[in-house]
Write a structure and sequence with these properties.
Shape: globular
Order of helices and strands: HHHHHHHHHHHHHH
Structural class: mainly alpha
CATH architecture: Orthogonal Bundle
Distance between the termini: 53 Å
Number of domains: 1
Number of helices: 14
Largest sheet: none
CATH topology: Tetracycline Repressor, domain 2
Length: 293
């Protein structure tokens, strides 16, 4: 491998790490669920699938690149995050701004290719997903803001397929929103003392770890109720209800893994449990569409 090729590969790896590309698994399966449900009894076209995938990746990339820019100074101060690409100097702020701008433009292009309503709603959606990065500076509701940002994915997918906004899409978005808010509270336990020392707003910093975990449990209970309501609205059946049961079991496991005084399993609870939850639900909802009469 030549030096130039090696540098390109290293740069791509750093960029993928900066935007946490692997975390796309949290939102993408719910966009798929919304798309196949909205298209029933048919299926989305190949073009719709393609542009939807482009929009999802672009939105995620813009959001995470901007998040790294907004948190650059904070990441440099936090021992847990000081090794990230921007504070460590492996990528530049100019590069991160370029990634943000190009990704936002690609999102608008994809929205325009889908339908007029997608294009009309793309700018406010972009404002929500970018605005999350600033939220913890002024509101303890930042966790719910992140949930709202990821909840846009199933709404956008529904509109991309149907050209309209129906109440089941909002129901799924609400369920995704409180699920994400709950696991974001768990993840932020790692920064409880750091956030409090800098006056940042997070539930662990405001309430302490134990009470914040109680809020996370309530949010996840609401998420299961929301997933169940959406499953019934989508037609019910063993596959969809099985998806909800699997989600409930994974959330119970997540809360058994994490304790306020023992954060050693936070990474497993955050990525593994929640990534598996999203993938399992996506697969089972698609199976329901394939196998239902």
């Amino acid at each position: 491998m030549s030096l130039g090729t090696s540098q390109l590969v290293d740069g791509l790896a750093e960029t993928a790490d900066m935007i946490a590309f692997k975390h796309t698994v949290f939102a993408l399966p719910f966009a798929v669920i919304a798309a196949v449900t909205a298209a029933s009894p048919g299926w989305p076209s190949v073009a719709t699938w393609a542009w939807l995938a482009v929009a999802m990746v672009a939105a995620r990339t813009a959001a995470m690149a901007f998040n790294r820019l907004a948190d650059h100074r904070l990441d440099a101060l936090n021992p847990r995050t000081s090794g990230r690409a921007l504070p460590a100097g492996r990528l530049s702020r100019h590069f991160a701004w370029a990634v943000t701008g190009v990704s936002a433009a690609v999102l608008l292009l994809a929205a325009a290719a889908l339908n007029p309503l997608c294009l009309a709603l793309a700018p406010p959606a972009l404002a929500v997903i970018l605005g999350y990065s600033l939220a913890k500076r002024f509101t303890v509701a930042a966790h719910l803001w992140l949930g709202a940002a990821l909840g846009i994915a199933p709404v956008g997918a529904w509109i991309a397929v149907s050209g309209r906004l129906d109440w089941p899409a909002l129901l799924l978005a609400a369920a995704v929103g409180v699920w994400v808010a709950g696991f974001d509270v768990i993840y932020s336990l790692q920064d409880e003392h750091f956030d409090r020392s800098l006056g940042l707003h997070s539930l662990p910093a405001r309430l302490g770890g134990a009470r914040a975990l109680g809020v996370a449990r309530a949010l996840h209970g609401s998420a299961v109720a929301g997933f169940l309501a959406f499953a019934l609205a989508a037609g019910g059946g063993p596959w969809r209800l099985g998806a909800v049961a699997a989600a409930a079991a994974l959330l119970v496991r997540q809360h058994r893994l994490v304790r306020a005084h023992d954060l050693s399993a936070v990474d497993a609870a955050f990525f593994a449990s929640n990534g598996i939850l999203a993938l399992v639900m996506g697969v089972l909802f698609v199976a329901a569409r394939v196998l239902e009469p």
